[in-house]
Amino acid sequence: EVVDILLRYDFPGNVRELENIIERGVALASGDIIEVGHLPEDLRDASFHTFRRKSGGIPSLADQERAYIEWVLQEHGDNKSLAAQVLGIDRVSLWRKIKKYKLEG
Hints:
This protein is an all-alpha fold. It contains six helices and no strands.
């Protein structure tokens, strides 16, 4: 997941910024693995904001909402109550959006 975030980020500061992020992650990690929580908060937030379609087009608001809800659910182990809290909506609204976007197979 960390690799995915790093690959999606544009790095306006180029290689120097990447180097600083990696050094910070290594310093914060207690073992050999850098976790998402070891990344700077703005980089973690940017993982959603830099979302793009592979075709290069700008995604619709509905596409972004769907992707964000899906990401929050994954981040919180599919815990709907916690995801709803993080999203700032009630559980019923989250269930409606899950149904609307067909996020459960």
